[in-house]
Amino acid sequence: MADIGVIGAGSWGTALALLLSNNGHKVTVWSIVESEIEMLSKEREHKDKLPGVKLPEDMEFTTDLETTVKKSEVLVLAVPSPFTRETSKNMYPYVKEGQIIVNVAKGIEENTLMTLSEIIEEEIPHAEVAVLSGPSHAEEVGRGIPTTIVVGAKKKKTAQYLQNIFMNKVFRVYISPDVLGIELGAALKNVVALAAGIADGLGYGDNTKAALITRGISEIARLGTTMGGRWETFTGLTGIGDLIVTCASMHSRNRRAGILIGKGYTMDEAMKEVNMVVEGVYSAKAAMGLAEKYGVQLPIIEQVNEVLFNGKSAAEVVESLMLRDKKVENPLIPWEE
């Protein structure tokens, strides 16, 4: 049994806290929002984010960050990506040398183009940082629906340790050393999911969705491998797997926001309606920054940016994508002479 602190009490943090508690660990959940902690302590349920999912009586809830960090062997950082740096700075004074921090959020910082684990390592250089990612909606993990994910860490023994902590009969955990590839797949798929949602909002069908998923993973892998991620990662759970579930499910806040945009909502109106942090909006500009830095074309992600930030209509975006210059699907496959 380990003492585990979950930093962030949103849907994903709460679902993972329940999973870890069910695995026999002593879990403390921290949130900066006092009303959220009061609700969780009193109701033993996150009525806003995970209604109907009951939390055990021995799970602790607190707004005391110092005590949570100091008493925990492992910290699960589950705040939305825009708050990763600020939260890491606040955690810094209390983190012990070599303490494991598992980032479970998904995103890229817009102004620095850094992944979330890179941010944590910069702000807390004495911590050991790992990531957990994959096709895993909090709503289903909270209900014990079978799910498979990947833990990424630089050291194999760290990955194996976390594998043992998280894994159970309904939550299968693989391990990987490709932390960069895992995080890029996790962040960029949210932008493609916005595109898939926009297509749904426009009333398009399965053909369109399949095209976006297939060409979307091609874009993600093209950028990711150029940056140093492994091709195998993008064909696995945190690449195509996470992309499929995010583009296809109504649990996906990115797809839901995209649907609203496709129906004519502005970005701000869609985010307000979804009432959760839409990570793809924050990663979209960063993705184009990375594309420019590494000289990689990302036509789908580029057009999502046009809709989000430059006032282009959703219908115009589809036409731009369909009428691009003619291409060979895979230029690496040779032709007969």
Detailed description of the structure:
The chain has helices spanning 11-22, 34-43, 65-71, 84-91, 116-123, 138-141, 156-166, 179-201, 206-227, 231-234, 237-248, 253-262, 267-274, 279-294, 299-310, 314-322; strands spanning 3-7, 26-30, 60-62, 74-77, 100-103, 128-133, 147-152, 171-176. An eight-stranded mixed beta sheet has the order 3-2-1-4-5-6-7-8, with helices on both faces. It starts with a strand and ends in a 15-residue tail after the last helix. Helix 2 links the parallel strand 2 (26-30) and strand 3 (60-62). Helices cover 52% and strands 12% of the residues. It is of the alpha/beta class and 337 residues long. Helix 4 runs parallel beside helix 5 (116-123). The chain has 16 helices and eight strands. The model has no long low-confidence stretch (mean pLDDT 94).
Give a quick set of tags describing it.
337 residues; alpha/beta; eight-stranded mixed sheet; 16 helices; 8 strands; 52% helix; 12% strand; globular
